[in-house]
Structure formats: structure tokens, C-alpha cells
Write a structure and sequence with these properties.
The chain has 298 residues and is an alpha/beta fold. The protein has 12 helices and 8 strands. Helices cover 36% and strands 16% of the residues.
């Protein structure tokens, strides 16, 4: 297996999910404890092993990589952080796993968090409630999002959310949103709710644009520094393999993780011109396309 180790770890303690773990070789326990930890969260195909293998072989091999496995029977709605039959929520399951890794001597107090498709849904909601645990956040091809709107009910918005949302802190987390240029089909796995269509757009490409724009506008309203960017890559279908092979997703993720965090301070004149009370309405309408070009300049 070259210069890395990959193993499947059965639940080592109650409340800790099964997971795949990649550990770079050639390290002492001390040097291993200093390496950054990347958490990768699968979509509904639950291809956790594939994600770890591709990441470890394409630029991320010198990180500790862990991929929790959210079993369908135990956590069928992990994307929404919903509790399973045992009463354990998916976000708490990940926290339990991170705390277990800390006990095991790894640097998991603050992680780089990546999610693809349903995993991206989980990842941005996890970061919304636990931003202190996330160093950098990468969301790839999410089917839909929780919008920064206190007037919309959870999980489409922040009202009645299961935990207090920490939107200000999430906006400070360096965030990369990746979506394929051709990921604009209404496949069976896509949330096709008319309400979500109206709020975020008809497909993943439009929804990535809408959420990114809405988050920038939320930062504008709150007059804080935003740290989010959107990257559209040449992937023609909604598939992890395609995003990697056609779009070079893992390589781009690796390069972005090496960058120094950059923040964007909203311009006060622009804030006044947009009207802070209308921030969400602008972002939602922009999902369809024409106003999005204006919103991108925020």
C-alpha cells in the first residue's frame, strides 16, 4: 500500500461510529500527534473507503484521514443531523469519534472537514453548530442547504434548529464550495421539494450558487468578515469518481488546504446600497441566475 496505512475500525466504544482511518507511515507517536486531521463524510452511496483511498493517494497522504460510516439503519438521516433509533445524533457521533481520536493521541480538537453530496449537507450543518471544531470546511455537490435565514424552519432555515446556530462563527471558518459545471440534472437522489426549488434553485449547481451568495450576504448584514468561495469545476455528472477524475477535486482540495486563510470584509457603501433587511430575499432570487452575477461581487 505504499507509504500509508488504511484500516477499517469497528466501533471502539459506545457512541463512536465505525470508521476508516488512514495514518501516514514513518511517524513516531509524537510526530503523528502533530499532523492535521481530515474528516471526509460520504454521501448516500456510503463510499467512505473510496474517499479515503483517493484522498491519501492524491495529495493528502501526509494527513491523518478519518471517514465515519453512518450506517443506513442506525443513521438514515445523518445529513440533517437526525438521531437514529438509539437516540444518538449524527453530529454527536462525529464528536464522539473525534474525542476518541484525541484520547488515542491524534490532533482532532480542530479538523479539516470535507463532505460530498449528502456528506456536504452533513458537513455544513455540523459546522453551523460546532464551528469551533472545524479549521477549514469544504462542501462538494451538496443536494441542498440550510440557508442563513431565521424565518425558515429547520432544516431549510435556522428556525427551530435542534441546537443554537452559530452563524457568525461559521462565517469566519474558511469555506470552499465545489460543484460540477454539469451537475444540473434533477436526479432521483436530489431533493425535489417545490419549496426547496423556490428557495435555492432547481439543481445542485444553482443551489451551490444560492447558498454561497446567501452566506456572503449574511456576512454583509452582520458586518463581519466572510471567508467563503465558490469553485465550479468541469465535472459532468453527480458522482464522486467523476468529480475526482474530470474536475481534479482532491488536488484542488489539497491546494486549498495549504493556502493561508483569506477573509473578505464587506464594503460599507455596498452594504448600504443592498439594504441589509433584504439580504436573504436577494440571495434566494439570485439562484435562478440573472441577479447572481450582481451578488457575486459582494
Amino acid at each position: 500500500m505504499g507509504n500509508f496505512q488504511l484500516r477499517f475500525v469497528r466501533s471502539p466504544a459506545p457512541g463512536v461510529p465505525d470508521h476508516y482511518l488512514h495514518l501516514p507511515t514513518g511517524h513516531t507517536p509524537h510526530t503523528l500527534s502533530r499532523l492535521p486531521v481530515m474528516v471526509m463524510v460520504h454521501g448516500i452511496s456510503r463510499n467512505a473507503a473510496e474517499q479515503v483511498l483517493r484522498a491519501s493517494q492524491n495529495g493528502l497522504g501526509e494527513m491523518v484521514i478519518v471517514a465515519p460510516l453512518f450506517e443506513r439503519r442506525a443513521m438514515g438521516r445523518y445529513q440533517q443531523l437526525a438521531a437514529g433509533p438509539t437516540g444518538l445524533s449524527a453530529d454527536q457521533a462525529l464528536i464522539n469519534l473525534l474525542d476518541w481520536l484525541i484520547i488515542d493521541g491524534l490532533n482532532a480538537r480542530q479538523i479539516n472537514l470535507f463532505g460530498f453530496s449528502g456528506g456536504a449537507q452533513f458537513a455544513h450543518r455540523f459546522a453551523l453548530f460546532h464551528p469551533g471544531r472545524v479549521r477549514k470546511l469544504c462542501l462538494a455537490a451538496a443536494g441542498w442547504y440550510t440557508m442563513p435565514d431565521a424565518g425558515e424552519q429547520w432544516p431549510a432555515g435556522l428556525a427551530s434548529s435542534p441546537l443554537p446556530a452559530e452563524l457568525k462563527k461559521l462565517l469566519a471558518v474558511p469555506t470552499l464550495v465545489i460543484v460540477g459545471r454539469g451537475d444540473n440534472l434533477r436526479t432521483a437522489s436530489l431533493n425535489q421539494s417545490p419549496a426547496i426549488d423556490a428557495q435555492q434553485g432547481p439543481h445542485r449547481l444553482a443551489r451551490a450558487r444560492a447558498w454561497t451568495g446567501a452566506m456572503k450576504t449574511a456576512a454583509l448584514r452582520l458586518q463581519i468578515r466572510a471567508n467563503i468561495r465558490l469553485r465550479i469545476i468541469p465535472a459532468h455528472r453527480h458522482q464522486f469518481e467523476t468529480y475526482c477524475n474530470e474536475g481534479g477535486m482532491i488536488g484542488q482540495l489539497s491546494e486549498w488546504l495549504e493556502e493561508e486563510p483569506r477573509t473578505i470584509l464587506p464594503h460599507p457603501t455596498l452594504a448600504a446600497r443592498h439594504g441589509l433587511d433584504r439580504h436573504y430575499a436577494i440571495a434566494a432570487r439570485a439562484a435562478a441566475g440573472s441577479q447572481y452575477q450582481q451578488l457575486r461581487g459582494i
